[in-house]
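Hello,

Our lab assistant flagged a job as stuck in the queue for most of the afternoon. It eventually completed. Since we weren't sure the result was trustworthy after the delay, we are filing this so someone can double-check. Below is the sequence as submitted and the structure that was eventually returned. Let us know if re-running is recommended.
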Amino acid sequence: MSQTNKAELEINVEPAPFAEAGSAADFISLMKPRVMSLVVFTALIGLVMAPASVHPVVGVSAIILIALGAGASAALNMWYDADIDAVMARTQSRPVPAGRITSEDALMFGLWMSGLSVLSMAVLINYVTAALLAFTIFFYAVVYTMFLKRRTAQNIVIGGAAGAFPPVIGWASATGSVSLEPLIFFLIIFVWTPPHFWALALIKNDDYRAAQIPMMPVMHGPVATMRQILIYSLALGVTVMLPYLFGFSGLFYALGAGILSFIFIGLASLLMLSPPARRDRFAGMLFAYSIFYLFVIFTLLPVDRLMASGV
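-- returned structure --
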């Protein structure tokens, strides 16, 4: 791929024509519920770990609004990316490229959900949380989707910040402020995102190439991508130890995080050493494990606190 193509990649593919009104299931799909589940979980951990008591109604309201904000940004992402989603086999069945929801409806749905979640957060929770949620939606829908995704191989590195904000928002929902602890939670997800997503990008490399999206494997090849995955995996192994090193988690967390990271790095190493014929298999293993890894890492945090308190 030439330097000119690297600098600016454009594609003009029209999504499938609109056929009929979208169902409730289509609008739910527009919100990327599987991705939302991870967002909700990490936000919940941020809220639970905060050093403040939260009324259950306030806590539940905050988590619901964070989920709505995540769904809003996903809908805006699907609206803007309908042209490239129509090219990629993995995304062709999404509501907009498949013609079940119009681009206009997806845009309005995303905008209304964004406004509803942010304004409700300001009224029901606090202004700090509302500002963080608004910034997260803007960062994912505008900075990542509209600017970074189609222009740089570092798209997922920088854009991954959007997915790292939920525990910070959860913490701020309880405290009305941001401190070191949620910033470390942010950093864990931020460093986790590149190896997680690049493992998938290796498998879907042909899709991204067809859609002219400058993912790392498209721009720099599989070998360079696997090297970056291993480097980030090593960095992640250090990053997840920060809660222990800064004294707000104990030995139970440190041992669990260490074992999980050892397996993560082992899978990244196997991927790096794998022959081309087996590359997709090991990339798939790493991708699946990375999701399990993040869930367990964040589960260990409150469990470790409960154990330390003698519960």
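-- support follow-up --
The delay was a queue issue, not a problem with the job. The result is valid. The mean pLDDT is 91. The chain has two domains: 24-176, 179-311.
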